[in-house]
Amino acid sequence: MRFKRPIVIAAIISATLILGNVNQGSVTNSAFSESYPPVVCPATPSGETSAISVPSTQTGSRILGKNSNVFKPTRTLRLQQGSSPTILDTKNFTSPVWQIKRGVWAGATICSAPSSSQWFVGGNADVTSKGKLILINSGLSEAIIDLRMWSESGVRPARVITLKANSSLVQNLGALDPGSKKIALHVAPRSGRVNAFLIDERGRGLRALGGDVVNATIEPSQEIVIPAIPQMNRSGSALGHTLRLLAPGDLPAQISVELISAKGSFTPVGLNDRTIQPGIVTEFDLDLQLPPSTFALKISSDRPILGSVYSSTFAEGKSDFLWSTATSPITEYSLAVSGLAPVLSFVGERVSISLTVRYTNKKEKNFEIKGEEIATFRVPANARAVIFNKVSANTYGGALVSTQSGYGFFPLIPGSQLTRALLPSQNIRVLNP
């Protein structure tokens, strides 16, 4: 008994410690805060006008570079953009921007949260270029940005750009690599909260040749889908398209192209098992004899690639051009559309989408969109928002907008993703051990 008592006491102490640890773990709860980061809309360059579709008149907005960081209600569903970038608190909605140079060109993009990597396939830097790269740092500290560029001549010298806190910079494309006719760009910030936007405007002397906003494309991938490309005629003749591709790696890429339309799918002549050299921006002309419609391209490759399509357009008596870019699959999200009335194009093996249109009179109507490989939906002119309630797997989407000033495209992707942050938790045991 003399030897058993210490053993019993030790067992009791051990059990007490174990139960204490179990109880301590059981009362510790992890709490998270969920929110959508504010999104950044590009500045409006001199001579242009921009309008942002917002989901509500109570949408919070503020101007980059001002002393105040307080969001104020827009008090309108169609916010006129100024010469400085605008920051919006759109919650779970995505806001498109419609930018025009009256009577010359028009283009579209979406306001988006800062990104750690943005790729652009479009634009030029030759004598016709009036294009611009807009860089925005909405953070409270200095941004250091790596800018890489490719052209028909290969990889160009990299640049490092420093951008002050809460500021923006407009860089002329013609100064980045003078003389290049085919360019692609990669914007990768080392620090800061950075957004980039690309404008491709062209002219020869006093003659305007059109323009567009080139939307950022997805990261390099072995399969890319460009979901919304307009096929147009002028005076009975089909207007042309140019496919621009880049393999940014060190090895050649073997690519095949599939065209998807309401009339069926096929491989354009000369675009099966083609080789593109690494680091060389390569273009292929698409001579298509299709009726006026919307079509898509699916490009498969044995190496990661990037791609976009340049299209000549003619709508409402105005010639322009358009860049359609590759996108990621659609997810359930909400899109503000006040003042736009876009045509939405969807591409997938079997398209099946349930959406709700919210009108300016606050009424709502549900729609079911179905199709084999491709389907389109025209948003009513008096709509203020489109809510994607259910989307079939591996379905891609893009929006096409037409006005008297020109034609525009933007991808059907959310401008901001829901983020979760771990909240600090209080434990009374820390105060009372």
Describe the structure.
This protein is mainly beta and 433 residues long. The chain has one domain. The protein is built from 3 helices and 36 strands. The protein has helices at 4-26, 173-176, 428-431; strands spanning 31-35, 39-41, 49-53, 60-63, 72-73, 78-81, 86-89, 93-94, 96-101, 105-110, 118-121, 132-137, 143-151, 154-155, 159-163, 167-172, 183-189, 194-204, 207-214, 221-231, 233-234, 237-238, 241-246, 253-261, 264-266, 274-276, 282-286, 293-315, 318-325, 334-336, 343-359, 364-378, 383-391, 396-403, 406-411, 419-423. Strands 20, 23, 24, 25, 26, 27, 28 and 29 form an 8-stranded antiparallel beta sheet that branches. Strands 8, 30, 31, 32, 33, 34 and 35 form a 7-stranded mixed beta sheet that branches. The longest helix is centred in the first third of the chain and has 23 residues, at 4-26. The model is unreliable at 22-28 (pLDDT under 50). Pfam families: DUF5719.
Key terms:
54% strand, mainly beta, 8-stranded antiparallel β-sheet, single chain, 3 helices
Percent helix range = under 10%
- The radius of gyration is 26 Å
Derived from helix and strand composition plus strand pairing, the structural class reads mainly beta
Tally of contiguous helical segments? 3
Q: Mean of the pLDDT scores? A: 91
Write the layout of secondary structure elements.
Layout: H1 4-26, E1 31-35, E2 39-41, E3 49-53, E4 60-63, E5 72-73, E6 78-81, E7 86-89, E8 93-94, E9 96-101, E10 105-110, E11 118-121, E12 132-137, E13 143-151, E14 154-155, E15 159-163, E16 167-172, H2 173-176, E17 183-189, E18 194-204, E19 207-214, E20 221-231, E21 233-234, E22 237-238, E23 241-246, E24 253-261, E25 264-266, E26 274-276, E27 282-286, E28 293-315, E29 318-325, E30 334-336, E31 343-359, E32 364-378, E33 383-391, E34 396-403, E35 406-411, E36 419-423, H3 428-431
Parallel strand pairs: 8-30
Antiparallel strand pairs: 1-36, 2-7, 3-6, 3-9, 4-5, 4-7, 9-10, 11-17, 12-16, 12-18, 13-14, 13-15, 13-17, 18-19, 20-28, 21-22, 23-27, 23-28, 24-25, 24-26, 24-28, 28-29, 30-33, 31-32, 31-33, 31-34, 34-35
InterPro entries: DUF5719
